[in-house]
């Protein structure tokens, strides 16, 4: 089983899960269908299904075009709002595509229909993978648009944490911003420092930071570290769900700190000349993270 990472839009990822022997493939969140089809054609693949994590346009926008282009293509998801949906799935449902197996994991919170997909191949030594959409990011989690802290706590600590510590492919490249927030939460966490340095180097080389592993997330992702003293001190809470709720509230307000500004910009900022545009000094918080 091979997973092809495809960068799209501003910071989204879509994926192709390829059964290398048959050259059949599943797409995950193919929001830019023409690019996906170009890759499918170039690599001689046969697209047999689409896995959609949630209905937001930057994940589901390409479904209708793909169904139109490939008659009989099946589009899977757990929310009727997903464009082009042909097969509605339920929690723990398993799908079979030749030797590739997919288990659907219902993880409502970012939206009420969010679903992660745990994928593995029969008789294969390659590690299984979980596609988490906007539920889990490297170093972070998705916003609670249609759900609660209780739901996200369950998603991370019960649903995803119950999986083997395997490979995580998320829906966005938010890693640097997430880890800068993690540094704010746990300034003495060496794993966060190490991961942030690595992510910056990847960004400098214009390379993705996906995938990570669930095992690694427990070391530096504050949303997995609710019982750590530093995380509880930062939030002023001790009960895990309340820690989760407080963390998300702080993350919603967080602007990624910029690296050092030129002296002229700092002087202008001090004199208030840039105050009218201060919100542009940092990256805007995307709706996903």
Structure overview:
44% of the residues are buried. The chain contains ten helices and 14 strands. The protein has a six-stranded mixed β-sheet, covered by helices on one side. The protein is α/β, with parallel strands linked by helices and 289 residues long. Helices cover 33% and strands 22% of the residues. About 10% of the residues have low confidence.
* Low-pLDDT residue intervals, each spanning 5 or more residues: 259-286
- Estimate the global geometry from the Cα principal axes: globular
Counting DSSP H or I runs of 4 or more residues, the number of helices is 10
Give average pLDDT, whole number: 91
Main beta-sheet strand count, sense and barrel state: 6 strands, mixed
Number of strands: 14
If strands are numbered along the chain, what order do they take across the biggest sheet? 1-2-3-4-5-6
Structural class: alpha/beta
Give the helices and strands as they follow along the chain: EEEHEHHEEEEEEEEHEHHEHHHH
Taking Cα atoms only, what radius of gyration do you get, to the nearest Å? 20 Å
Percent in helix: 25-40%
Residue share in β-strands: 15-25%
Distance linking N and C termini: 29 Å
């Amino acid at each position: 089983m091979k997973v092809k990472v495809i960068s799209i839009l501003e910071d989204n990822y879509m994926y192709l899960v390829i059964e290398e022997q048959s050259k059949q493939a599943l797409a995950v969140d193919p929001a830019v269908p023409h690019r996906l089809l170009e890759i499918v054609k170039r690599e001689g693949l046969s697209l047999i299904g689409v896995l959609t994590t949630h209905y937001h346009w930057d994940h589901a926008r390409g479904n209708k075009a793909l169904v139109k282009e490939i008659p009989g293509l099946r589009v899977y998801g757990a929310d009727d709002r997903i464009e082009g949906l042909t097969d509605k799935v339920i929690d723990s449902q398993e799908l079979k595509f030749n030797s590739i197996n997919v288990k659907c994991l219902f993880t409502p919170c970012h939206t009420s229909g969010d679903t992660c997909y745990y994928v593995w191949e029969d008789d294969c030594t390659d590690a299984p993978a979980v596609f988490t959409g906007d539920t889990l990011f490297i170093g972070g989690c998705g916003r609670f648009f249609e759900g609660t802290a209780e739901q996200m706590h369950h998603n991370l600590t019960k649903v995803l944490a119950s999986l083997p510590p395997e490979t995580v492919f998320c829906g966005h490249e938010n890693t640097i911003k997430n880890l800068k927030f993690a540094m704010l939460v746990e300034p003495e966490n060496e794993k966060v420092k190490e991961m942030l340095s690595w992510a910056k180097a990847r960004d400098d080389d214009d390379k993705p930071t996906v995938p990570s592993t669930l095992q690694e997330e427990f070391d530096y992702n504050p949303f997995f570290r609710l019982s750590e003293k530093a995380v509880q001190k930062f939030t002023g809470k001790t009960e895990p769900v309340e820690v989760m709720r407080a963390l998300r509230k702080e993350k919603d307000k967080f602007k990624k700190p910029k690296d050092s500004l030129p002296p002229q910009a700092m002087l202008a900022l001090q004199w208030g000349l840039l105050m009218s545009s201060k919100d542009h000094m940092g990256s805007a918080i995307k709706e996903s993270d």
